[in-house]
Protein 1
Amino acid sequence: MKPFALGWGKAVRLALLVGALLALYVLAVARHDERARIREQPVTLTPGCEEKLARYGLAAGSGYASPYTLARSGQARVKRGYSAEDVRAIQRGCNIIDDLQGQLAADPSRERWNSTRFVRGTHTSCDHCHQGIGDKQTAAGVAQTGSLSLAASWVMADMYDQFTGILLPYELRQMQCYINSSNGYKPNVADDLIRDVTAYSRFLAAALDLRFGNHYAEQGIDEVTAASTLKRGDDYVRGAALYKEKCARCHGPQGLGTVVDGKALYPAVAGPNAFNQQSRNNFSFVSTILPGFLCRNMPLGEEGTLTNQDCRDIGFYVSNMPRPAGDKDGPLAALWHQLMMRVMPTLIHTIETWQRPEVTQESGT
Amino acid sequence: MKQAVSSWVARRAGAVGNELLIGLTLAIVVLPQAVAFSTTLAGLPSYFGLYGAIWGMLFTALLNPSRVFHGGPNSTQSAVIGVTLLPVAPQFGPDYIGYALTLFLLAGLIQLLFLTIRPLGRFLDFVSEPVANGMICGIGLYMIFKSFPPFAGLPVNTQVEWRLWIAWQSFLAVLEIGNMHAIHIGLITLLVTVITRQFDTLRNWAILLGIVAGTLYSEYLNANVGVGETLVEQTANISPAGFVYPSLPLFTQEAMPDIISIIPGAVTLALLGLIQTVAAMRLMNRKSGQFVDARHGIFADAVSNCVLPFISALPTCASFNRMSLMQTMNTGSRLAAISSALFLLALVSFFGEYIAIVPVPAMAAIIMVVGANMIDWSDIKAHFQHRPEAIVFSASFLSVHVFGLFGAVICGSLLALAYAQWEKAHPNITLEGNVLRIRGNIYYGSLPVIESLYHRANIDERFDELIVDFSAVHHIDPEGIRWLAEVGRNGRVRFAERRGGQDRRGDSAGRSGERKERRRRQAL
């Protein structure tokens, strides 16, 4: 009797295992179908993307000639055109760069393909650093030097990471962006998110007629090294004063950003929604990138007014505000940073407003 | 001597075929691991993993008398190599390889130190069974999670922090963006393996049959749909690697500052290897019934790891997953481990083209099966009978996923040490004639000492009976009870407990028994 009973138990366990595998398989088929449907849907563009892609004349067809190049050089170089599927991929890529969080989308998780799953908080968008939807131009319509242009980055193709010496293809360089702001998982390099953004970057390079393998001035960022300053060290106190004067009106006195109607008008530079401790934007991790960004792009409307020393001081100050731990800091550091982010803003607010009700407006979030 | 001979000879006639089958299975299981560990974790070319598998397995099998021992490259060690050397030089470069060889040699020398300084080696015994089992179960689950992306034909993300979160995200990625052809191949492999395992006659062939089924389906797809459409990765052809590739560790004057900076990494590497070897050997001693002092394992590892850096190989240490596979396949002699190395050498040298068509998803499915095998419910249940053991087991299991493998070793060892301190153990055992007297505690920390003396007494031909006197024992932990139960099954052994005033074995009421009892009392 016993072997028989044992046989039944075994059979039931086996059936359960096989059943679970088949159920997962059916689920996978369903999710794949849904994904295929999303990729065939027409794309609703954000206003920014609509303007940019129309200006660059994106349309399906057998050949593509960039109106931008035609206007600037008087010559139209006809390149291989885009299929309807390519056009949708480029449009989705543009949407992701402009509005990663899907704040302008009717159905964010469908239209932005789960992109929020891979970044921390509710503020981060690619456009915050890669301004002008990855193609920032001056008033004269010329690409701005050191503006982290996606087009110029794409034509660089594979490059060596300057810190680790590892050869990084464009897809893995996108991954670096997710590391800067991620919550512990980067999209798989085969993910549609990466493919769509690659398609968009590639289209930009074609539209701007950037040549493969060349280095352009708009690629990367103008890093502000210590050598390019007054060489008196990075000043936290001066940074704090400058931050209060120039940055706090948008990013908030504690750097927690400005949110109106659930939309992040000005992103957080500290707290749970900001870039993390191991981001290259973090001054104490890489000290030249955030100052470079500040000198080029901040404050909004008064770009170029800060000196190199100002930028380094502000960067130093901002990086000492509480922010999420990096992915490689480990769970204990992450816990500590979470605690700091919860406690410090309230604590600072309490201390600054202690018996001084008139400063309530300037302190806190 | 007799033991040494018996470890070589298969226990029953006709078992040689089974040993060779185990060897072939192990060679196939270790192949993807060797390639993956060296390229994705250690940042070294794949031949490092292969030579580590071939020569590491062979050296340890020759030097280690245990029947159930399987060396070769190890995921934890490979990860430590990558982490240690990342700041020193660019991966896969000539400098990196030089520093890696230096790191391996340093680790081997440190292991030799553990062999020559006895108290250091003894210190490794403090990794208890619940710690080791917790780690094994954790690693088993981790291997399943880690196989999700290759199972679905997706590239593996190399950033490996926040393991449970990444496991969940990889699972979602399999469902959403996985390559359906890859998933089909993986599922076929998995189902064939799992179903054939249920039949006793096919049990040991299950993994090979699974691989064959997956490969056949992949070949069918390639013929009908085309590789360009399926995009399923296949194993690379590794036959040009050759038998051996001599190399020299880097010890130049300019490199000295960097070499000094990797010494902590070398200590970690050495310790991780030894801890795994000692823990795995202790576990297998209990399961297989063959007692081999863990010092043999330390000796085999240390000597191998001092030689391997000179032939471009990853360091070796015991592999929990392959050893549990050996145990479940019921290995009877060292032939299995040795033949696995030779099979792998033959596979790499002569069948490279055939291995090259094995699809990666099928390999991932096999790693999943091996991972699931490592989670043994009977072990887990035993640990949950006793609260401190349950806590140590759970902590060790969870810390694999929260703090990583090295974190688990540290966390588990600290807990085990705290537990040891808690139990206040002072093993004090003596062997007088045929009386093995134990004073103090019988617990996991004292068991290795007790066991070694017990086995020495057990093979003593002068006496036909062995009396184990634990009158002065004031604590026996569950592991000790399990050991005593094992000892109780040995017909030669009689337990004595003086405080009770009588023999513990009921059936020894005969006259000769009484005479012996009297003699024993005189001896006492």
Note: Strands of chain B lie at 428-432, 435-442, 466-476, 493-497, 502-503.
Protein 2
Amino acid sequence: MSKQNWARPVRRMTVGAVPDGALNMNVEGREPASPLQGFGPLWQRTFRIRLRGVPATPAEVMSVWKAEFPSFQPAGNRFHAPVAGVQAGEIIFLESAISIVPGRLPGVPIASGVRVVYVDDVCFTIMTPQGFPEAGFNTFSTFAEDGVTWAQVQTMARTSDPIIEFGYRFMGGFRFQRETWTHVLTALAARFGVLDEQVELNDRCVDPRLQWKETKNLWHNAMLRSMVQLPLHAVARGRGRAHGRRKK
Amino acid sequence: MPEVTIAMNVRPVNSAISVIDIEGEVTAVAENVMMEAYSEASANGARAIVLNFSGLEYMNSSGIGLLVTMLIRAQRQKQQLLAYGLDEHYQQIFELTRLNEAIAIYGSEAEALTAARNGRR
């Protein structure tokens, strides 16, 4: 363990190299948001899966998890690993859409990113930017218990603002989160040949209070902004392609 | 699970202030030790709890999560949480995670206790 595992503090997030295909939206210039800056109740949610029969050590499993991180996401979630890999200080870009009725209604789109703030051999932690649906940390870790390797995702976060809190409570946001991390862990287990293990969930409400002073986060809401930005981006990209064809 | 490599000693300064001396590594396995120390420090109705990090050897992101949990518990009890003894690196970690906005950091125990007595953050 080394002190170099941590990213350096930044007042606002900055974006370096953007991976091919990633949309650089709602990250640059945003303040990092800890669980103290969110609006909704503070939840610690733990998802974990036992990799029974897998000879790989926790460090070996984590190495694969970091290297292939985007591939474990469910359909509809696009994660873009940093060009330099999962390292402290790097940005992981993502695009997703949260649907109230998956498969029947189109989802509300979001394009944003998260900053890797801590990395070691068996763990990495990301921190969200202002405007991300949740304010806080997600820690991805592996560990051994009774000779068996486990993989775990633990979130410690509040919803960022009242709209997101409403969406999480009444429009499927919590279900979406649960399904996402269950899928990620199940896919990781399948990568190591484990197909019959269930993901264990443990939810703990650390603070049930709403932080009304953080209602101001609405201004940065990445979902609302993405609903405007993504169509504009698609139009601009279409024009760019048309312009390129004319030049040829 | 990894073995616990942390010890915490609670020192009541007076009926309103307690100091928790932290020795070792603050990681996920420190949860029980840390929360027991917090409960002991709060037992006599302390209004301020000072965390002494002089003996801190290492802290990872799970350790930061434990500090967030302790901070929330303190806030709900209307207690101040203060800290001293953090080296420059860990002061930066507090800045990175924005814990420094809720846990005031001081250079020495004397400064932290003065702030606690004055009810300053």
Note: The beta strands of chain B are 6-12, 17-26, 48-59, 80-84, 104-106.
Protein 3
Amino acid sequence: MVVISLENFHLVVLIKPSPDIEKVRFDTVRGVVDRSSAPLEINPFDLNALEAAVQIKEKLGGEITAISMAPPKAEPVLRDAIARGADRAILLTDKRFAGADTLATSYTLASAIKKLGKFDLIICGEKTVDGDTAQVGPEVAEHLGIPHVAYVSRIEEVSRERLLVVSDMGVPYLVELRLPGLITVTKDVNKPRLPTLRDKLRARKAKIEVWTVDDLADVADVNRFGFSGSPTRVVKAFVLTEKKRKGVIFKGEDAVDRLIEVLEKEGILR
Amino acid sequence: MSEYKGILVFAEQRNGDIHPISFELLGKAREIADKKKCEVYSVLFGYKMREKAKELIYFGADKVFLYDHPLLKEFDVINYKQNVVNLIREEKPEIVLIGATPLGRSLAPRIAAALKTGLTADCIDLQLDEDGELIQVRPAFTGNLIAHIKTSTRPVMTTVRYKVFKARERDLTRKGDIVEKEVEIVEDVGVRVVRKEPVEVVNISDAEIIVSGGRGLKKLEDLKILEELANLLGGVVGASRPLVDEGWISKDHQVGFSGNIVRPKLYLACGISGSPQHLAGMRDSEIIVAINIDPSAPIFNVADYGIVGDLYEIIPKLIEKLKDRKRGVKG
């Protein structure tokens, strides 16, 4: 007898709205990022996470929920997630979520997933271009008490019960993950498709759900959200001034000879 | 909070060998501990690792907590996490240092979340403020911003980038204790290593000399001249992201924010313009040399030495001169 489960396969993709790193400007005097200088977009690593979810859904069916914790102006980012294949998008937005470090952020996202109720596989990008921590994914897994595999560079096999993936831990390992579980994916896992015009039109009409602290109060300890739930504090920040380099440019016929001379002097050539 | 004392260094082990990051962390931990007048502990997982555990003492640990068990031979994120969490609850170290390797960055967040403590990622420096509290220095925004971070919970947890601290001299006269701990094993953790993939990978982050190519290369075959140059210099070939995307070279050669972060003695960038994502991966190299046809390429802003010109003329010339030099012919 073949038993066909009528239960949907639930995929969750965590998305960080982040500024375009090629465009964003830095205020060197105050040591801060001028957040108005570049609009928010899907963190590039999360595009691969979303594409991975879409490919898995193509095989197993199911539903993809995209979740972000961000200010209200991040709404277009979630609309973009819908255009790229998410069925449902939830924006966690509330002043009381603000100022969160990775511990509070991961706790908030994990609480939203709990509130969602059903999840089989959670997919995150390897890291973000602004925070650079790569911590939120594994922290979410710990809060939910599920296994995780980080740095997934290839998805070999998927079923409703388990995943076979290649995890790039300096050397690649083939790893089996039992579901429910979480993976963080690298940029090698796939090539994200571009949304079509039809996708974009559909996304324009889609509803972006907005959840606040009050929506999570029954599943979480609200003191662990935002600034008050964040044990790490930036006490000082400054724009990186490049290490003073010599900046010597060699020109003309003997440029190569001059380069060899300095490499000898620097002790590189012996 | 004052009940938390000492510094715990997580020692990373692969195939029975201790990763050099562990010795670097012990060196820094020793320096901080001597200022704070506290002890340095280390924790090591593996199977039949008692001999190797002594190395941690030679490199600066006062006490090594050893978890020796056949199931701990390979990285097992859940069992490693559970035993480190148990150890931290018992020993209450003030500071926990973990290497910011893929393994460390997969493990540390789970430990921090389980302990509900703060974790700072990928630090490039650690300092003490006037109150003896740890200042964690780390890059953010793809390396464009540097932040100083303090943690209000205990332990203060930090992952530290490879090759930013120097290990101490191995001192065979150093004495310390090796404490074998009882291992708590969860049998079915939900993650299982099936096998190591049978591929040769270049460990570019260990290389002292890197010759890197970028968009300035016109075709796959042209990587050969970079290989020849790298061989002559005793180095390895690196690449910027576009070459990896093209499938010309494997990911283990990639230098940049989404690839490897390197700090060799010499970084020779050939036909690389220097995007923010590339600079984030190599700006801490000791000496940077750039060869690029475009004098306004951002790579020249971080270069010690540069040649503006066509790499297809300059590199063959450089190769010839280096060969002559090897043969003892005066240029």
Note: Chain A has a mean pLDDT of 93.
Protein 4
Amino acid sequence: MNGRATGPRVVLGLPAYNRPDTLGRTLESLLSQTYRDFALVIVDDRPSAETAAIAGAYAREDGRVRYEANDTRLGMVDNWRRAFARATEMYPGAEYFAWVSDHDLWHARWLEELVAVLDAHPDVALAYVRNMRMMPGDGRMTDKAFDTSGMRDRAARLRHSARYMLSGDMIYGLMRVGALKGAGVFRRVTTPDRQVLLALSLFGQVRQLPYVLWYREVLRVFDVGRQREVFFPNGAPLYVYLPAHVQHFATLLWDFAFRGSGRPAFGRLAGLRFALSQLWWSCVRDLERPKSDWRMTIGRLRVWRQPRPQQVR
Amino acid sequence: MTSRAVRILFFMRSNIYARNFESTLRLMAERGHSVHVVAETHEHLDPTDLLGRLCREYPGITHGRPPAPDSPRWIQLGLELRKGLDYLRYFGPEYRHAPKLRMRAELKLPVFASSAAWRRLVRTPAGRGMLERLLRAADRALPPDSAITAFIREKRPDLVVVTPLVEPGSPQSAYLRSARSLGIPTALCVFSWDNLTNKGLIHDPLDLLTVWNEPMKHEAVTLHGVPADRVVVTGAVAYDHWFTWTPREDRAAFCARVGLDPGQPYLLYLCSSRFIARDEVPFVSRWVDAIRSRSDLLRRTGVLVRPHPQNAGRWRDADLSALRNVVVWPREGANPADGDSRAEYFDSMYHSAGVVGVNTSAQIESAIIGRAVHTWLAPEFRDTQDGTLHFKHLREVSGGVLHLASDLEQHVEHLEAAVREPDGSRRSRAFVEAFVRPYGIDTPAAPRLVEALETAAGRPSRRDRGAWWAPLARPVLTRALRPVENALRAVDEQTRGRKHTRGRQKSADTSGRARTADATATTPVGGRDRGTTVHDAGPDVPAIPPDAFAQYLEVRERVRGFRAADLPADALTEAERRIRDELGALWDATPAMVAALRRYGAAITGVSASDYNGAGGHDLRERLTRDLRRLLAKGDKALWIDEPDVCGGFGFNGLAQLYNEDTLRFFRVISLLQDAELLTDFRRSGGRRTVWEIGAGWGGFAHHFTALCPDVTYLMTASSDSALLSGAYLKALHPGARFRFYDPARPAEFWQNWHLADFAFAPEEVVAGMPLPGLDLVVDLGALVRMKGERARVHVQKAHDLGCRYLFSHGGVPIRWILDRFYWRHPVSEPAYVAKRLAVRTGDSTSEPAPYFLGWRRLHV
């Protein structure tokens, strides 16, 4: 379906996967947004009669909702990519895009605040909010902060992002469609959110709002093995067994040094420099970070005492 | 008319009253009569010293102070008896729609009005009739004061004149009584046009009563029982001088001097007295906004605001600089009592294109000068426009002097027409001819008045020896003297105490934030009463806010209006019936009870001042302090608001200035709303918002919330008992706030100009149909769970129907099914989160694991 030239300014892509228990509540929190000029595209990777009925009901009542089911299961990475692709196909005039999950909740002011930031700051490519983590029998406000607003130098932004960014939170922020396309959307790598956000840092700043406007369900702890399984249901390619930073380095090198995707913003040579910089600073991060992958791996081998694992969805 | 010179003894309450009789005094002196004016002198009231000037100018006019009474106890008893009679007049049918007048009368209640017998009798017409006869008989039995009688005898007057006489308790009655005992004729010269309707009664027989016009004569006869043949219509002597004035400056010079644009016309806004319009500043701002937005003509038109001399304080610091071509002048207020001040006042009216005011004598003065007088029936002044009897004169006499609009829009239309073609003289002239100069526009009133006084002075008067039974009744009355004296002494002591604590109370309204210093000592405050119920506070009760009792009376009058809408007893739950029974005493509260108003909150929340004492108090203090420390450590200290130390506020101090279980509970609720990022909406600019509290509580949460988020209209729907408690409490805390009470006779008015109200009270009856323009948050602090299921459902459904995004309820399990039906549970009110974030060991959270429900609105129900 083709979008209109005068379509919404914001489009949300919702890659759904078998959560009929939470989908209705999630959709209502999105449709209750005070900012109303948006469309919601649901791409269901495991369609069931129940999910289809819920999504279909909202789609019938509210013209901003579109629902599509995949014929075959794509896996998480491809479904995220498809959500973006379908959303931008349906609404080519949309300026901003955000991925939303099928189980989280959003404050009614979430979109209004983020749109205001992107409208007011053309240098900002991504805006996101603080969140409250909803865990079984527990709830916790996050207090982590990451922000590159005001940093005009791409290399500095990339360095800062590689060392400190909160990719699990930021990936649900509101992004400029053009910047996201330039960054390459989602790549078929492990921790693809981190990869795309690193690339995005080359196209603009990141701004974090101090408000808790997103209620994020967290059911499981991070697990690389499970991620490979979920991301690639038809079998993981061999390269995803490489360290994530190496995969990310390779994608950045390919995109910006060889293909020159960063032009006209920056050239191939700069792309090479950024890819190397990313690799270096990501490794530094891992060396410093108590919860880094290598520490966790060693921890699992019971050589060192295992630190508390990072919790991600 | 008599040809001989007469001696007149003119008792005035103070020298300020000479202003309205200047022309009379001059004429009497010029006609060779001698007038001795007896009046207290207050220089600040009349800095121009009019009386002194008259005395210096005319040898026939002398001035002295009133004599000290010989038996002040009898004088005081007489005052109290007549105050009772004055109060009873306001039960008459003519005052049915005058709640503010009734309220003012209640402020002047006699000391014995707090007795149970008085309260019982005053409830029924028969009881009031009995009281009236009793009080009148007792008043008649009082002897004239020998010192005052001797003073009058020494002066050998031909006539004793008093003004204004009709003050509460009629203190000048003593002069009339002494004069009559000497066989000297007596007269009352009515001071102003509202005196016969707005104040006390005329308690004594008179030989002469002079009034301005026929409508006032009618009032004298019907409302005061003065025989018609003793009433003489003279015209308004107070305004004689306005007919001879001419402008001192031309328009351009005047405008330039006061700061208006001389090239544009201007409207004159004449402020009213404090009783009529306590604070006109926001009202005038709104009025200016309205006329500015009407048309280009009105946008260019200047506005001159003239503060009332008795209420100029409100304007001293008023900032209208954002409004172009608007001038407040004279900002300090000016009493037009001498040539200069009158000339300026006259010029301001004369050069204006039209005059606007709420309800003031200045409107009559403007009519005399020939200016069109405009007003509109503003909802905020309903009680002092249509709610006063004298306003009818402006509306009705000879078709009325007012260009009266029913709403602001129509009023602005009138003004535009007036500025375009300034011509209000025809209507004004007709009114002036009937009301000010009833014998012809060119016939001054002073000669008529002087002639009437001369005639009365020449008329023989019979000596009044009092009732035959009076000597027999006096021993009984003597026994009544001691309780009256004791009660008056107690009132005096209370007044002194009030003055002592006033400074402390002032800060309670504005600086309620916690002092979260590291102080660890905790001491009970204000919780000294040992009783289990708080029906009478006793002498220990701290901190009575200034005017708290007056505010209570005002609220009571308003709330009484929707008392009939209360649900019948069988529709209430047991918990609601218990609350109603415990709050019932508030309908007849004494000042002492109002001083302990806060403690009635125990009927609703169960948090009682008595728990904060003794051994139990010690344990509670430990728990509460621990809880508070924990909450402040985890929460945002800026959200803490102390329990106000007024109206019997109680609790402990130490970590915060004053705290108790209610204070902690409010802090927890506010913290929850903050965690849900709702307070941000209310605290940032972007339009006024509405909060609806179901049940009203005792007013504590409303105070807490509005202290943090002042830019809201806070609606409370409740039974009349609860509305009385919370309304009076909030009024005492926020005397400057704009209160609105639902009036079943004018239901639509309640919802109009919604954003102009700060606190609004309505009965539960209106809930199902209330047409709120918007609703941002609903708060239930336990009212829903006290209701029966269907009533609770109606409330929650109404919140949902009105599109309210968020609903907070402290209702618990019994109503959870209703809440879940219309609202999703917000993550911050999930039991696990609340337990971790806001758990306390004191109070209700221990009885139920998940007492709090914050919901966000479902789209599909």
Note: Chain A has a mean pLDDT of 89.
